[in-house]
Design goal:
This protein is α+β, with helices and mostly antiparallel strands. The protein is built from 17 helices and 23 strands. Helix 5 packs across helix 8, helix 6 packs antiparallel against helix 7 and helix 9 packs antiparallel against helix 11.
Length: about 500
């Protein structure tokens, strides 16, 4: 009987595999694909609103028109020209570009600020479109599903490992979390191919990878997000240069390949560089929001992450966190009820309060978690306690939610309560009238080294000079000539 069960399961899996083979648009080879093109399109359409909500869009009509034009042109000559490609600039300072299934490609303003010409952008654009045309995300998900099928079959046939099924699934998900070296190399090749076809010099794509490597190696610099989400397959700089040379050697057109340095630099003149304080900033353990005109204290040594949807704070040990959001409801009671339903809260006590002159409601509740691992009875985990404040201010309701495990709740109660009780109106003009740093493009009036030119523009601190050199993909001793354009960082008002 057991052998019969294993045989039936094995035959079922084989049937599924043979019926799920498809031809890869790039390689022309058959591959196992459990995700259809219609599913890819649906995944992209579903993911796009969440990505925009979490990071925000960077509003720049000229820059958006540029990436739309180049993106559509490249999509049309790609291996999947039938897709309706969408291109977004996200309002994030991190240096990143990524794609999701179905034709959605995203660039952060951080990476747009670090490109030094159109050809660098075109190479990375081709790389990301390559992930879509080669169906890397879909193939990755198919591998996860296939391993899931195998794990399910094993759990059914061998009851002894059923309790480990969840752990197996989680492990497989982590194993395929990032693109592998083969996928990255293939996307680099496609980036070279596509950008060359639309008339750009793909050697510039390699140069951009070189500047990212410099950022990674420079002391005190964090690894650029683009490198952390795109594993470096060996010596990428030399490899892409080699591919660009080979691609250009076989070109039929005699038209010179474009770099587009000055055109690109003029287009990004004025782009925001780094964090935008108008979206909220921390100074001396206080969070200020100059547009919505409020402030609240941040617990000492806590980490804070600010996004358009939510402010999150947490202690270094991870034993307590606070989430701060804007409620969509019109009354304190409606906002509280929305939170109760959204987070499955069991209310212990609640009551009306005044917070620095503002009407508010405070609530203590419990979140009970249940975990099932193949057992007949749910196993209860330790409950989570929540302290929630709903504050009516400026015609809107703000929601603080502080969380910790039940055993730690009393220890952290005052710390969780501090930002909530400290929420108040911001009226200090010096905290309201802030402005972000911006990239400014300047024309070199005379010949000199980059370092001497920066000093002429008031940049004397060595670290700032090094940062600006990286921003331009130059060395401080590089010689500039009259009429050359470079990027400098114009400090905002803080």
């Amino acid at each position: 009987m057991r052998q019969m069960k294993i045989r039936i399961t094995f035959i079922t899996i084989l049937g599924l595999l043979f019926s799920s083979c498809s031809v890869n648009p790039v390689t022309g080879k058959k591959e196992i694909m459990l995700v259809s093109e219609s599913q890819e399109l649906a995944m992209g359409a579903n993911a796009d609103p969440g990505i925009i909500a979490s990071m925000g869009l960077y509003e720049d009509e000229k820059l958006q028109a540029f990436i739309n034009e180049k993106g559509k042109e490249m999509g049309a000559i790609s291996h999947r020209p039938q897709l309706d490609y969408k291109f977004r600039i996200l309002d994030s300072p991190v240096i990143n570009a990524f794609a999701v299934p179905g034709g959605y490609v995203y660039f952060t303003r951080g990476i747009m600020a670090h490109f030094n010409n159109e050809a660098e952008f075109a190479g990375v654009l081709g790389h990301e479109i390559g992930h879509i045309t080669a169906r890397h995300s879909a193939a990755q998900m198919s591998q996860q599903q296939l391993l899931g099928i195998g794990a399910i079959a094993g759990a059914v046939a061998f009851e002894g490992i059923r309790n480990n099924f969840d752990q197996i699934q989680q492990g497989m998900g982590l194993l395929f979390l990032k693109f592998g070296r083969d996928d990255e190399s293939q996307s680099d090749m496609l980036g070279v191919d596509y950008s060359t076809q639309v008339g750009y010099d793909a050697h510039e794509m390699a140069n951009f990878f070189g500047v990212l490597k410099r950022m990674q190696l420079q002391s005190g610099q964090e690894i650029p997000t683009f490198l952390s989400t795109h594993p470096d397959p060996g010596d990428r700089f030399n490899k892409v240069h080699q591919m660009a040379g080979e691609q250009q050697a076989t070109r039929e057109s005699n038209m010179p390949l474009k770099i587009g340095r000055n055109e690109y630099l003029k287009m990004i003149d004025g782009i925001i560089y780094g964090e935008d304080p108008r979206q909220g900033y921390v100074e001396n353990n206080v969070f200020f929001h100059p547009v919505l005109k409020f402030l609240f204290p941040v617990p000492q040594s806590w980490k804070l992450v600010n996004s358009p949807q939510m402010v999150q704070m947490g202690d270094e040990q991870g034993k307590a966190i606070i989430m701060f959001t804007l409620s969509s409801k019109n009354t304190l009671q409606e906002a509280a009820q929305e939170a109760i339903e959204q987070y499955s809260l069991s209310v212990v006590e609640s009551g009306d309060r005044r917070v620095n002159g503002n009407s508010a409601m405070a609530m203590i509740s419990v979140i009970k978690q249940e975990q099932q691992q193949g057992t007949t009875q749910p196993q209860e985990q330790e409950a989570i306690r929540a302290l929630s404040y709903f504050i009516l201010y400026g015609g809107q309701i703000y929601h603080f939610m502080g969380l910790s495990r039940e055993n730690d709740f009393n220890t952290y109660f005052k710390t969780l309560q501090s930002p909530m009780e400290g929420f108040q109106m911001l009226s200090d003009p010096s905290k309201i009238n802030v402005a972000p740093d911006r990239v400014r493009v300047v024309n070199i009036p005379r010949e000199g080294t980059l370092q001497s030119i920066l000093q002429t523009n008031g940049v004397y601190v060595k670290d700032e000079q090094e940062k600006t050199a990286l921003l331009n993909n130059m060395e401080l001793q590089d010689i500039l000539k009259p009429g050359d354009l470079i990027k400098v960082i114009e400090k905002g008002k803080r």
